[in-house]
Amino acid sequence: MKTILLAASISLLLSLFGTPLAIRLLRRRGYGQLIRDDGPEAHHTKRGTPTMGGIVIVIASVLGYFAGHILTDDPPSPSGLLVLGLMAGLGLVGFLDDFIKIYKQRSLGLRSGAKLTGQVVVGALFAVLVLHFPDRYDLTPADARISLLRDVGPALAVLPFVIWIVLLIAAAANGVNLTDGLDGLAAGSAVLVLASYVLIANWQLRNDCISGPIIQHCYSIASPLDLAVVAAAALGGCLGFLWWNAPPARIFMGDTGSLAIGGVLAGLAVTTKTALLLIILGGLFWIITASVIIQVGFFKMTRRRVFRMAPLQHHFELIGWAETTIVIRFWLIAGLCIALGLGIFYVEWLPT
Predict the structure, then answer these.
(1) Is 167's pLDDT higher than 50?
(2) What is the pLDDT of residue 44?
(3) Contact between residue 93 and residue 259 where contact means Cβ atoms under 8 Å apart
(4) Is residue 51 one of the residues assigned to a domain?
(5) Measured over all CA atoms, what is the biggest interatomic distance in the chain, rounded to whole angstroms?
(6) What is the CA angle 314-319-320, rounded to 5?
(7) How many CB atoms lie within 10 A of CB 212?
(8) How many structural domains comprise the chain?
(9) What pLDDT digit, counting tens, does each position of 97-130 carry?
């Protein structure tokens, strides 16, 4: 528990006090946000706001994680390192996308094919590695199975498992990326989901199948404590960044931050064996992603639009909702999704 608190606190402080430094540095170098001309008019005032602030989230999370372990003399686990590696790898893909946008002064960074390829490579490497590195109880960071509250169904062959994990990672990363369209929306929603994973990993630790007494619904999770540390470190990094990203934002996370956050969420879902539960916990991200799929699909079939603009948050902007109203209401939706997800997670412990 000390490692969790230290990792979260250090990451929070690094992000909270490091973000203003990043704002000054990025502003000095002219790394400002480019705004689409066809977007909501209110966004034009945000042109030039420093972007790529996700660098702060990633650095604060990584340093907070390692500082927590060093201060408590608790060695990192393969599970924690793999999830952090996934976060950093996708953050690098997002950084390249952001840098190209700024360098070439255009709203398009990496081509969609190159961006997806980067996500697939990082995701496939993670998917292969989580099947290795058994701990002293012979538990690997993940098993080649689909999971909801724990592993379900038969074991998959390596290739189908890798494809499944890559799809999950890409969906989570792009879901957070699409949500990052209003000040504080993605960061605030991510804070809530990460907090739920701190609770889930702690619960799995206290009810594991190995070190504690034998109980009916125990969990075979490799290093659940360290997964809680990762979630807490990422939570602290997002929370400190949110202080400066809340409306009116002084800095944007960019694809660097949104892809990294999506990566850490997907990594935690895989290693805590709650992959399908992430669809409910991160319900807001999936709702917003679905709005884009519906808009594009319906337009291709009928040449008409369902929403005034997609992703969904921009539809509400165009019908007259204030930005802060949308952000707060979407945070509430995210909170309801998390409450439902945690309720489903704990329901098997209810007396029958």
Answers:
(1) yes
(2) 46
(3) yes
(4) yes
(5) 62
(6) 95
(7) 11
(8) 1
(9) 988 888 776 656 678 888 999 999 999 999 999 9
